[in-house]
Amino acid sequence: MMKVKEIENPIKFFSVVDMCQGDVELVSGVGDCINLKSKVTQMYTLVNVFRHGYVRELELSVANPSDRELIYNSL
């Protein structure tokens, strides 16, 4: 698990997720895992999670360690 903070540009965030080789999942407050590599899920997340323009913190499950590094370095 990793936490990503202060996401102000959701389009950039999703473009980084798209570059990842392995699974990237959003972990909900109740422990549900939502596949962020799916375009449908990205649209749902954009409308429901990013509706206020930015997100203070997201918890992600990132399968590939190099993807974790890519996300940290890109945001």
Describe, in plain words, how this protein is organized in 3D:
Helix 1 runs antiparallel to helix 3 (65-74). The mean pLDDT is 90. With 75 residues, the protein is of the alpha+beta class. The chain has three helices and four strands. It has helices spanning 10-19, 39-48, 65-74, and strands at residues 2-7, 24-27, 33-35, 55-62. The chain has a four-stranded antiparallel β-sheet with strand order 1-4-2-3. Strand 2 (24-27) and strand 3 (33-35) form a beta hairpin. The relative contact order is 0.32. It has a single domain, classed as 2-Layer Sandwich (Histidine-containing Protein, Chain: A). The protein is 40% helix and 28% strand.
pLDDT below 50 for ≥5 consecutive residues: which ranges? none
Number of helices: 3
Structural class: alpha+beta
Task: Tell me the series of helices and strands, N- to C-terminal.
Answer: EHEEHEH
CATH architecture: 2-Layer Sandwich
How many β strands by DSSP? 4
Side-by-side strand order of the widest sheet:
1-4-2-3
Strand content: 25-35%
Instruction: Round the Cα radius of gyration to an integer and report it.
Output: 11 Å
Mean of all residue-level pLDDT scores: 90
Q: Count up the domains.
A: 1
CA-to-CA gap between the ends? 17 Å
Shape: globular
Q: How does the major sheet shape up?
A: 4 strands, antiparallel
Task: List its traits.
single chain, 75 residues, alpha+beta, Histidine-containing Protein, Chain: A, 4-stranded antiparallel β-sheet, 3 helices, globular
Short description:
With 75 residues, this protein is of the alpha+beta class. It has 3 helices and 4 strands. A 4-stranded antiparallel beta sheet has the order 1-4-2-3.
